[in-house]
């Protein structure tokens, strides 16, 4: 297993479901969960506050929270509902543990403005200070925030009831969000997609499932994919942990009439030629649609080396549900013209082992350095970096820097303010791809800053 950072190299879905018109115009919007939850918000830096509007497909209570580490514990949550008389109720709550969040007994910093119910949906507008200085609140940081949400089917009688599986989370840079392109932007373009085909998810708590696909043959000359869409089976939102889409080596050979699929470990030797070139990745918290810079595209067709692709699915079937089937997949939109540059992935990291990633006991902060030799950058001379993604398998409170070292000079690409748990992937757009020329360097340094709990 590799502990990796992936960099996209050059070399919000605005699909809102709610039938309710927002109360005002907002700067940002995102569909938190298809056909279930939508969120709008505007940041007022002068007033140090954010105004939100949350729509959810229910006539019960709805909730939005800011989590310090990705889970419910320690989260600052606003809970609201509209009763039968049309009155809006709203509460400031704090999740001190994995239990029903308690009412904030210090100050109430989630403030309702307006709300209504219509067509089976509930819409509530509310606001909160960016930094409340309240020990039972979580500050909204300038980097990526973990936003959690939940809902119930009924209004509370007394205390709020348990939401069961009606919950979700997204990683959103609330103060600097860039809306993903609407899907209709790519209407009329050619596309190809690879999907699971009603494949059975094993009744195991964790499974890595691999499926090989033959590359599209309808493009005799080189084309460029300009965007891709991750399509998570709506029945498996709580089961799909992440996916990795690989481009197999050009030397890979398979029987086109019997392409391999199944639990990855059971086919590891057969699939060894496919665990090399990453075409894209997605994990919980990632955007469903990614559009590439206008000067670059992912190469497909012609004499492009990969003749096969492989989709690796990571399922978390914690309820051990038998005979559960999946149709998750990924779609690539093909541009009408070739672009100037090709896109690819570059993976950095260190092997996960006792020696490679050992954290001493009882330390609050520990750095693990990884280095790539100069020969590496000679191969990828002149590349531009435009998107940073990382995925930490089992660590929380991690940050990292990627730097170029040459003599006494150091160029840093940072992913700051990252708080994450096992479920999450961080995706950070690097400002101005043109200014991030990946030139020849003597050494590439990757220090991982690990904050740990004392034992």
UniProtKB/TrEMBL annotation:
Keywords: Signal
PROSITE patterns: DOMON
InterPro entries noted in UniProt: Cu2_ascorb_mOase_N, Cu2_ascorb_mOase_N_sf, DBH-like, DOH_DOMON, DOMON_domain, PHM/PNGase_F_dom_sf, Tbh/DBH
Cellular component, GO annotation: extracellular space; secretory granule membrane
PANTHER family: DOPAMINE BETA HYDROXYLASE RELATED (PTHR10157), MOXD1 HOMOLOG 1 (PTHR10157:SF23)
Family listed: Belongs to the copper type II ascorbate-dependent monooxygenase family.
Record's protein name: DOMON domain-containing protein
Species: Rotaria socialis
């Amino acid at each position: 297993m590799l502990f990796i950072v992936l960099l996209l190299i050059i070399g919000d879905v605005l699909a809102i479901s709610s039938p309710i018109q927002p109360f005002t115009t907002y700067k940002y919007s995102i569909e938190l969960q298809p056909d279930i939850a939508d969120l709008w918000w505007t940041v007022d830096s002068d007033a140090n506050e954010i105004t939100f509007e949350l729509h959810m497909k229910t006539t019960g209570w709805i909730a939005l929270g800011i989590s310090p580490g990705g889970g419910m514990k320690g989260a600052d949550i606003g809970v609201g509902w509209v009763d039968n008389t049309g009155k809006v109720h709203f509460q400031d709550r704090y999740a001190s543990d994995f239990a029903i969040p308690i009412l904030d007994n210090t100050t109430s910093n989630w403030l309702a403005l307006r709300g209504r119910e219509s067509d089976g949906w509930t819409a509530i507008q509310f606001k909160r200070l960016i930094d409340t200085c309240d020990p039972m609140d979580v500050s909204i940081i300038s980097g990526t925030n973990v936003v959690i949400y939940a809902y119930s089917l009924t209004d509370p009688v007394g205390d709020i009831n348990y939401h069961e599986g009606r919950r979700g989370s997204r990683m959103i840079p609330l103060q600097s969000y860039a809306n993903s392109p609407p899907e209709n932007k790519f209407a009329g373009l050619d596309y190809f997609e690879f999907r699971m085909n009603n494949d059975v998810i094993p009744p195991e708590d964790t499974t890595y499932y691999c499926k090989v696909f033959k590359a599209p043959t309808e493009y005799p000359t080189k084309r460029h994919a300009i965007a891709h869409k991750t399509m998570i089976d709506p029945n498996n939102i709580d089961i799909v942990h992440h996916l990795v889409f690989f481009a197999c080596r050009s030397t890979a050979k398979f029987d086109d009439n019997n392409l391999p699929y199944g639990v990855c470990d059971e086919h590891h030797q057969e699939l060894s030629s496919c665990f090399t070139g990453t075409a894209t990745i997605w994990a919980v918290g990632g955007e469903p649609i990614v559009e590439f810079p206008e000067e670059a595209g992912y190469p497909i067709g012609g004499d492009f080396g990969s003749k096969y692709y492989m989709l690796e699915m990571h399922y978390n079937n914690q309820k051990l549900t038998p005979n559960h089937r999946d149709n998750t997949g990924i779609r690539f939109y093909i541009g009408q013209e070739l672009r100037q540059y090709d896109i690819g992935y570059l993976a950095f990291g260190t092997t996960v082992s006792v020696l490679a990633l050992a954290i001493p006991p009882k330390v609050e902060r520990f750095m693990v350095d990884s280095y790539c030799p100069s020969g590496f950058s000679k191969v990828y001379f002149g590349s531009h970096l435009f998107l940073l993604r990382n995925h930490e398998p089992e660590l929380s409170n991690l940050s990292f820097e990627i730097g170029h070292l040459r003599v006494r000079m150091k160029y840093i690409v940072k992913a700051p303010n990252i708080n994450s748990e096992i479920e999450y992937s961080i995706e950070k757009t690097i400002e101005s791809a043109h200014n991030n020329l990946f030139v020849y360097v003597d050494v590439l340094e990757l220090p991982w800053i690990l904050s740990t709990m004392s034992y």
